[in-house]
Amino acid sequence: MNRTSTSRWAKLPVVAGAAVLLAVSAPVTAWAANGPVQVTVMPEGKHITVNNPADGHCYTVSEVLPGSTGYFRALANSTDKSFYVYGDSACGSEAHTPIPAGGTLIGLDFRSFKLG
Hints:
Number of helices: 2
Radius of gyration: 22 Å
Number of strands: 7
Shape: globular
C-alpha cells in the first residue's frame, strides 16, 4: 500500500467517529406532543381534553376550565411524550415523577402540567 492509501484508511475511523458524535450531540428542536391529554378538574368533576399540547407551555386549571379555582385530580397521557405535574399553578414547584406516554395518574392533586 502506498502512503496515500494508508493515510486515507487511517483517517476513516476518525471521520466516522466525528460524524457519530455530531449526530448524537446535535440540538433537537421542540415539537408539540401528538395526541390528547385528558385531565379531570375538581371539585367540578369535569373531564377536559387538551389536543396536541405545546412543548414548554404550562397548562393550568384556569386555562383548561376558565372560571375554575379548583385543581387537577387525574391525567391520562395519550400522547407520544412524557408530562410533569406540579403542585403550584405556574409549573414552578418541584415536578412530580413524569407520566410517560400512555401513562395515567389518578389521585394526586396538582395545579399545572407541561411536557417533560
